Amino acid sequence: MSDLDGLVGQIACLGRVDTATLERVRHEALTVPDDRAAWVAEYGEFQSGGWSTLSLINRSGDPRDVRIEDCSPRATSLLEQMPATREFLSSLGFRFMWVRLARLSANSFLWEHRDYQELDGSARVRLHVPLVTNSSAVLVTAGTRVQLRAGRIWVLRPTHAHGACNLLGPDRYHLLLDCYLDDRLAAAVQDAWLDAGDSDAMPTSGPEELTRRVEQALTLAGLGYHTAAEKHLLRLFYERALPEGQVYDLIADLYRRLDDPEGVRRWRTNKRLMLGELAARTLA
Predict the structure, then answer these.
(1) Residues ≥6 apart with Cβ < 8 Å to 28
(2) What's the chain's average pLDDT?
Protein backbone atom coordinates (compact mmCIF):
# COMPACT_ATOMS: atom_id res chain seq x y z
CA MET A 1 0.00 0.00 0.00
CA SER A 2 1.42 3.43 -0.96
CA ASP A 3 1.53 6.41 1.39
CA LEU A 4 -1.23 7.99 -0.71
CA ASP A 5 -3.43 4.91 -0.27
CA GLY A 6 -2.98 5.11 3.50
CA LEU A 7 -3.84 8.81 3.53
CA VAL A 8 -7.10 8.16 1.65
CA GLY A 9 -8.32 6.35 4.77
CA GLN A 10 -8.13 9.67 6.64
CA ILE A 11 -8.80 12.42 4.07
CA ALA A 12 -9.91 12.06 0.45
CA CYS A 13 -12.10 13.49 -2.31
CA LEU A 14 -15.66 12.22 -2.32
CA GLY A 15 -16.95 14.12 -5.34
CA ARG A 16 -17.06 17.40 -7.21
CA VAL A 17 -19.33 20.44 -7.01
CA ASP A 18 -20.31 22.03 -10.30
CA THR A 19 -19.14 25.59 -10.80
CA ALA A 20 -22.57 27.21 -10.87
CA THR A 21 -23.67 25.55 -7.63
CA LEU A 22 -20.38 26.42 -5.94
CA GLU A 23 -20.71 30.08 -6.93
CA ARG A 24 -24.27 30.31 -5.59
CA VAL A 25 -23.39 28.64 -2.27
CA ARG A 26 -20.25 30.76 -1.95
CA HIS A 27 -22.24 33.94 -2.53
CA GLU A 28 -24.71 33.01 0.20
CA ALA A 29 -21.88 32.17 2.64
CA LEU A 30 -20.09 35.46 2.00
CA THR A 31 -23.20 37.59 2.32
CA VAL A 32 -24.32 36.39 5.76
CA PRO A 33 -24.17 39.32 8.19
CA ASP A 34 -20.48 40.32 8.45
CA ASP A 35 -20.71 41.43 12.07
CA ARG A 36 -18.01 39.19 13.56
CA ALA A 37 -19.94 39.11 16.82
CA ALA A 38 -22.56 37.04 14.98
CA TRP A 39 -20.06 34.24 14.40
CA VAL A 40 -19.41 31.92 17.35
CA ALA A 41 -15.86 31.18 18.49
CA GLU A 42 -16.68 27.85 20.15
CA TYR A 43 -14.15 25.11 21.05
CA GLY A 44 -11.66 27.74 22.18
CA GLU A 45 -9.44 25.11 23.79
CA PHE A 46 -8.85 23.56 20.36
CA GLN A 47 -7.70 26.69 18.53
CA SER A 48 -5.41 29.70 18.53
CA GLY A 49 -8.29 32.09 17.91
CA GLY A 50 -9.60 33.05 14.48
CA TRP A 51 -11.86 30.02 13.97
CA SER A 52 -15.62 30.60 14.18
CA THR A 53 -18.78 28.90 12.98
CA LEU A 54 -22.50 29.26 12.38
CA SER A 55 -24.87 26.30 12.21
CA LEU A 56 -27.06 25.53 9.21
CA ILE A 57 -28.50 22.26 10.53
CA ASN A 58 -28.56 21.49 14.26
CA ARG A 59 -30.75 20.49 17.18
CA SER A 60 -32.36 23.86 17.96
CA GLY A 61 -32.72 25.89 14.77
CA ASP A 62 -30.51 28.63 16.29
CA PRO A 63 -27.48 29.27 14.03
CA ARG A 64 -25.37 30.25 17.06
CA ASP A 65 -25.90 26.81 18.61
CA VAL A 66 -22.64 25.27 17.31
CA ARG A 67 -21.39 22.68 19.83
CA ILE A 68 -22.23 19.48 17.99
CA GLU A 69 -24.03 16.53 19.51
CA ASP A 70 -26.34 13.71 18.47
CA CYS A 71 -29.83 15.05 17.88
CA SER A 72 -32.83 15.12 15.60
CA PRO A 73 -31.43 17.83 13.34
CA ARG A 74 -33.39 20.59 11.66
CA ALA A 75 -32.65 23.61 9.51
CA THR A 76 -31.63 26.76 11.32
CA SER A 77 -33.05 30.21 10.66
CA LEU A 78 -29.84 31.00 8.75
CA LEU A 79 -30.21 28.09 6.33
CA GLU A 80 -33.78 29.16 5.66
CA GLN A 81 -32.26 32.36 4.16
CA MET A 82 -29.83 30.38 1.95
CA PRO A 83 -31.89 28.61 -0.75
CA ALA A 84 -28.95 27.54 -2.93
CA THR A 85 -27.16 26.02 0.04
CA ARG A 86 -30.34 24.31 1.20
CA GLU A 87 -30.84 22.82 -2.27
CA PHE A 88 -27.22 21.66 -2.46
CA LEU A 89 -27.37 19.93 0.93
CA SER A 90 -30.63 18.23 0.03
CA SER A 91 -29.18 17.00 -3.27
CA LEU A 92 -26.46 15.04 -1.47
CA GLY A 93 -28.96 12.69 0.15
CA PHE A 94 -26.80 12.05 3.21
CA ARG A 95 -27.95 11.69 6.80
CA PHE A 96 -26.70 14.80 8.58
CA MET A 97 -25.94 15.03 12.26
CA TRP A 98 -24.92 18.72 12.12
CA VAL A 99 -23.94 21.19 9.39
CA ARG A 100 -21.92 24.35 9.96
CA LEU A 101 -20.42 27.22 8.03
CA ALA A 102 -16.85 27.67 9.28
CA ARG A 103 -14.46 30.59 8.91
CA LEU A 104 -10.72 30.37 9.62
CA SER A 105 -8.93 33.72 9.61
CA ALA A 106 -5.35 34.42 8.59
CA ASN A 107 -2.61 33.33 11.04
CA SER A 108 -5.03 30.96 12.77
CA PHE A 109 -4.67 27.35 13.86
CA LEU A 110 -6.83 24.45 14.94
CA TRP A 111 -4.40 22.53 17.14
CA GLU A 112 -3.76 18.79 16.80
CA HIS A 113 -6.86 16.98 18.05
CA ARG A 114 -9.45 14.26 17.55
CA ASP A 115 -13.17 14.87 17.16
CA TYR A 116 -16.32 12.98 18.21
CA GLN A 117 -14.74 11.84 21.49
CA GLU A 118 -17.73 13.07 23.51
CA LEU A 119 -20.29 11.37 21.24
CA ASP A 120 -21.54 7.78 21.19
CA GLY A 121 -19.89 5.11 19.06
CA SER A 122 -21.99 5.63 15.92
CA ALA A 123 -19.98 5.64 12.70
CA ARG A 124 -19.59 9.18 11.36
CA VAL A 125 -17.48 11.13 8.92
CA ARG A 126 -17.08 14.84 8.29
CA LEU A 127 -17.44 16.30 4.82
CA HIS A 128 -15.65 19.53 3.94
CA VAL A 129 -16.91 21.67 1.07
CA PRO A 130 -14.34 24.47 0.59
CA LEU A 131 -15.94 27.69 -0.61
CA VAL A 132 -13.05 30.15 -0.26
CA THR A 133 -9.51 28.97 0.35
CA ASN A 134 -5.87 29.76 -0.40
CA SER A 135 -2.58 27.93 -0.80
CA SER A 136 -1.53 28.55 2.83
CA ALA A 137 -4.75 27.04 4.25
CA VAL A 138 -4.14 23.33 4.79
CA LEU A 139 -5.37 20.38 6.77
CA VAL A 140 -2.61 18.36 8.48
CA THR A 141 -2.95 14.67 9.26
CA ALA A 142 -0.54 11.72 9.33
CA GLY A 143 2.47 14.01 8.92
CA THR A 144 1.06 15.39 5.66
CA ARG A 145 -0.32 18.73 4.56
CA VAL A 146 -3.41 18.43 2.38
CA GLN A 147 -4.69 21.31 0.27
CA LEU A 148 -8.50 21.08 0.32
CA ARG A 149 -9.30 22.57 -3.05
CA ALA A 150 -12.57 24.32 -3.77
CA GLY A 151 -14.94 22.60 -6.17
CA ARG A 152 -14.66 19.26 -4.40
CA ILE A 153 -16.34 17.49 -1.52
CA TRP A 154 -13.72 16.11 0.87
CA VAL A 155 -14.30 13.33 3.38
CA LEU A 156 -12.38 13.43 6.66
CA ARG A 157 -12.33 10.80 9.39
CA PRO A 158 -11.79 13.21 12.30
CA THR A 159 -11.22 10.44 14.83
CA HIS A 160 -7.65 10.44 13.46
CA ALA A 161 -5.43 13.15 14.94
CA HIS A 162 -5.47 16.21 12.69
CA GLY A 163 -5.29 19.98 12.65
CA ALA A 164 -5.76 22.90 10.27
CA CYS A 165 -4.18 26.27 9.67
CA ASN A 166 -4.55 29.37 7.54
CA LEU A 167 -1.18 31.06 7.56
CA LEU A 168 -1.50 34.04 5.23
CA GLY A 169 -5.18 34.50 4.37
CA PRO A 170 -7.60 35.54 3.10
CA ASP A 171 -10.20 33.99 5.39
CA ARG A 172 -10.97 30.36 4.61
CA TYR A 173 -14.68 29.45 4.38
CA HIS A 174 -15.84 25.81 4.43
CA LEU A 175 -19.12 24.00 4.82
CA LEU A 176 -18.66 21.30 7.47
CA LEU A 177 -21.12 18.41 7.21
CA ASP A 178 -21.03 15.91 10.08
CA CYS A 179 -22.78 12.83 8.72
CA TYR A 180 -23.77 9.40 9.95
CA LEU A 181 -22.11 6.73 7.84
CA ASP A 182 -25.19 5.08 6.31
CA ASP A 183 -25.07 2.72 3.31
CA ARG A 184 -25.28 5.51 0.73
CA LEU A 185 -22.44 7.51 2.22
CA ALA A 186 -20.35 4.39 2.89
CA ALA A 187 -20.58 3.48 -0.79
CA ALA A 188 -19.44 6.96 -1.78
CA VAL A 189 -16.56 6.87 0.71
CA GLN A 190 -15.41 3.55 -0.72
CA ASP A 191 -14.75 5.29 -4.06
CA ALA A 192 -12.97 8.34 -2.57
CA TRP A 193 -9.62 9.30 -4.05
CA LEU A 194 -6.63 11.64 -3.80
CA ASP A 195 -4.64 13.10 -6.67
CA ALA A 196 -0.86 13.16 -6.38
CA GLY A 197 -0.76 16.95 -6.12
CA ASP A 198 -3.26 17.16 -3.25
CA SER A 199 -0.83 16.29 -0.46
CA ASP A 200 2.65 17.23 0.70
CA ALA A 201 4.51 14.98 3.14
CA MET A 202 6.30 17.05 5.76
CA PRO A 203 9.92 16.37 6.76
CA THR A 204 10.67 14.70 10.06
CA SER A 205 12.38 16.58 12.88
CA GLY A 206 15.56 15.26 14.48
CA PRO A 207 16.57 15.59 18.15
CA GLU A 208 18.81 18.60 17.46
CA GLU A 209 16.01 20.59 15.85
CA LEU A 210 13.57 19.72 18.63
CA THR A 211 16.13 20.77 21.23
CA ARG A 212 16.63 24.07 19.43
CA ARG A 213 12.88 24.74 19.29
CA VAL A 214 12.48 23.97 23.00
CA GLU A 215 15.40 26.28 23.84
CA GLN A 216 13.75 29.06 21.83
CA ALA A 217 10.51 28.45 23.71
CA LEU A 218 12.38 28.57 27.01
CA THR A 219 13.80 31.96 26.04
CA LEU A 220 10.31 33.27 25.28
CA ALA A 221 8.94 31.89 28.54
CA GLY A 222 11.86 33.36 30.46
CA LEU A 223 10.90 36.78 29.12
CA GLY A 224 7.35 36.23 30.38
CA TYR A 225 5.82 35.27 27.01
CA HIS A 226 4.40 31.90 28.03
CA THR A 227 1.58 31.84 25.48
CA ALA A 228 4.03 32.68 22.68
CA ALA A 229 6.32 29.90 23.90
CA GLU A 230 3.46 27.39 23.82
CA LYS A 231 2.39 28.44 20.31
CA HIS A 232 6.00 28.25 19.13
CA LEU A 233 5.94 24.53 19.94
CA LEU A 234 2.33 23.87 18.91
CA ARG A 235 3.12 25.16 15.41
CA LEU A 236 5.65 22.37 14.93
CA PHE A 237 2.69 20.11 14.09
CA TYR A 238 2.22 22.10 10.84
CA GLU A 239 5.91 22.07 9.91
CA ARG A 240 7.25 18.61 10.75
CA ALA A 241 5.98 15.02 10.77
CA LEU A 242 5.98 14.20 14.48
CA PRO A 243 4.69 11.30 16.57
CA GLU A 244 1.13 11.86 17.71
CA GLY A 245 0.90 14.24 20.64
CA GLN A 246 4.61 15.07 20.74
CA VAL A 247 4.00 18.81 20.66
CA TYR A 248 2.01 18.48 23.90
CA ASP A 249 4.83 16.45 25.47
CA LEU A 250 7.32 19.14 24.47
CA ILE A 251 5.25 21.84 26.17
CA ALA A 252 4.86 19.74 29.32
CA ASP A 253 8.64 19.26 29.32
CA LEU A 254 9.07 23.02 28.85
CA TYR A 255 7.19 23.63 32.10
CA ARG A 256 9.12 20.87 33.82
CA ARG A 257 12.32 22.72 32.96
CA LEU A 258 10.74 25.93 34.25
CA ASP A 259 10.05 24.11 37.56
CA ASP A 260 6.33 24.74 37.09
CA PRO A 261 4.43 21.56 38.09
CA GLU A 262 1.06 23.24 37.48
CA GLY A 263 2.11 23.94 33.89
CA VAL A 264 3.18 20.32 33.46
CA ARG A 265 -0.16 19.10 34.84
CA ARG A 266 -2.14 21.50 32.63
CA TRP A 267 -0.48 20.37 29.41
CA ARG A 268 -0.72 16.69 30.26
CA THR A 269 -4.45 17.33 30.79
CA ASN A 270 -4.61 19.24 27.50
CA LYS A 271 -3.08 16.27 25.68
CA ARG A 272 -5.77 13.96 27.05
CA LEU A 273 -8.48 16.48 26.15
CA MET A 274 -7.25 16.95 22.59
CA LEU A 275 -6.33 13.36 21.74
CA GLY A 276 -8.44 11.24 24.06
CA GLU A 277 -7.87 7.81 25.49
CA LEU A 278 -4.83 7.01 23.36
CA ALA A 279 -3.08 10.02 24.86
CA ALA A 280 -4.14 8.91 28.32
CA ARG A 281 -2.52 5.52 27.73
CA THR A 282 0.73 7.08 26.57
CA LEU A 283 0.83 9.13 29.77
CA ALA A 284 0.15 6.14 32.04
Answers:
(1) 81, 82, 83, 84, 85
(2) 93
Is the peptide bond preceding residue 170 cis, with omega within 30 degrees of 0? yes
Q: For residue 121, with 0-12 CB atoms within 10 Å meaning exposed, 13-18 middle and 19 or more buried, which class applies? A: exposed
Task: Tell me how far CA of residue 275 lies from CA of 46, 79, 169, 271, in angstroms.
Answer: 11, 32, 27, 6
Residue 110 three-state SS: strand
- Residue 116, CB-side half-sphere exposure with 13 Å CA sphere: 20
User: Are the C-beta atoms of 67 and 55 separated by less than 8 Å?
Assistant: no
Class of domain 3-201: mainly beta
The closest of 11, 55, 48, 16 to 32, measured between CA atoms, is: 55
List beta partners, residue 156: 11, 126
For the stretch 77-105, pLDDT in tens is 999 999 999 999 999 999 999 999 999 99
CATH 2.60.120.330 segments of the chain: 3-201
